[in-house]
Automatic annotation (TrEMBL):
It comes from Caedimonas varicaedens. Gene3D superfamilies: Vaccinia Virus protein VP39. InterPro entries: Mt_RNA_Methyltransferase (IPR052571), Ribosomal_Rsm22-like (IPR015324), SAM-dependent_MTases_sf (IPR029063). Keywords: Iron, Iron-sulfur, Metal-binding, Transit peptide. One of its GO terms (cellular component) is small ribosomal subunit. GO terms for biological process: translation. This is Mitochondrial small ribosomal subunit Rsm22. GO terms for molecular function: iron-sulfur cluster binding; metal ion binding; methyltransferase activity; structural constituent of ribosome.
């Protein structure tokens, strides 16, 4: 996955006259701040904002795109988007690619300058949409106006535990159809997703992904539910990240909640499938908890399905039919 060409070209243009060593340093400082979580505001100046556009926006875009794609069959229900903590409008880029049906967009972001830099990157399709930019602190902005799709991407970790609960409650209140939450795929990021999931179920939500049910999460001990998205690094991305490879794997955790029940997968592949000699080992989250299944080549139909399964995919029906 890569950013849309028009977006990365606009980012390159925006940064062409900048001092790259300043942006490299800003990226290192910002990463350090995210790792130590010792800040009231994580992004503090323009060099850090540019480093976010160059090195983090591609990752959150790729994750947002992969997660939202799971709602593509529901596109006719999705006519408006409310993105909370929208940053430069990353989720909007992913959403507009999947839901051409979206007409009204509200982006709430407290860092006005980041929102402004993001809006300067918009292409003609986005410029034609009805986009309301609200510069506000989410902790004070509720109640939010109702929208068919509400998203919170890589924001929860920047809020205190009490504020996470309050923002989720207000976001769910504003959700007409779907509410999507994404976080880094770390144990801490997953714990925030798990707590949000529990809160959403208590508020009446139907969980439609990645979980195959709305029962208690069976993930226990040192395990955490996360997935991985491979994304391309452009030369500029590599330069600013001081990274040798032309790709990176972004780990993420997420949950999609719906206001009404929806037909969805009865299991999920929660680890990279392992291929043995004449069999595949699949780790699945199922309606009956976590299961490891071994699919032998002798079971031709299931084996054929297993060969194409990837980490994060809906799991197969164990009678051989794909259940998505
Ligand atoms: C890691 S960035 C994610 C940006 C964007 N959602 C994305 O996926 O690329 C977190 C964003 O949340 C915003 N944010 C954090 N706390 C906020 C708050 N209390 N009110 C509004 N925005 C907030 C930050 O300013 C930042 O833009």
């Amino acid at each position: 996955m890569a950013l849309p060409p028009s977006l990365y070209q606009a980012i390159e243009k925006l940064t062409e006259s900048c001092n790259f060593s300043d942006i490299q340093k800003a990226r290192r400082d910002l990463t350090q701040r995210y790792h130590t979580k010792q800040a009231s505001a994580f992004i503090t100046d323009d060099a850090e904002r540019l480093s976010y556009l160059i090195t983090r926006m591609p990752a959150t875009y790729a994750v947002g795109h992969t997660v939202l794609k799971q709602l593509s069959k529901e596109a006719d229900k999705i006519t408006s988007l409310l993105d909370l903590g929208a940053g430069p409008g990353t989720l909007l880029w992913a959403a507009k690619d999947i839901f051409s049906s979206i007409k009204d967009v509200t982006l709430i972001e407290e860092d006005h300058r980041l929102a402004e830099l993001g809006a300067g990157l918009f292409d003609d399709v986005l410029k034609k949409k009805q986009i309301h930019h609200i510069k506000s602190d989410l902790r004070q902005a509720a109640p939010f106006a109702p929208h068919t799709l509400v998203t919170l991407s890589y924001v929860l970790g920047e809020l205190s535990s009490n504020h996470q609960k309050a923002v989720i409650a207000a976001a769910w209140e504003a959700t007409i159809e779907f509410f999507v939450l994404m976080e880094p795929g770390t144990p801490q990021g997953f714990e925030r997703i798990r707590e949000a999931r529990t809160q959403l179920i208590e508020m009446g939500a139907f969980i439609i992904a990645p979980c195959p049910h709305s029962l208690a999460c069976p993930m226990a001990g040192k395990d955490w539910c996360h997935f991985s998205e491979r994304l391309e690094r452009t030369p500029l991305h590599r330069l600013i990240k001081e990274a040798p490879f032309a790709y990176e794997d972004e780990k993420y955790s997420y949950v999609i909640a719906a206001k009404s029940p929806l037909k969805h997968s009865l299991s999920r592949v929660i680890r990279k499938p392992q291929q043995g000699s004449g069999h595949f080992i699949l780790d699945l989250c199922t309606q009956n908890g976590l299961k490891r299944v071994i699919i032998s080549r002798k079971n031709q139909e299931l084996y054929r399905i297993a060969r194409h399964l990837e980490w994060g995919d809906p799991g197969p029906k164990l009678d051989g039919k794909n259940n998505d």
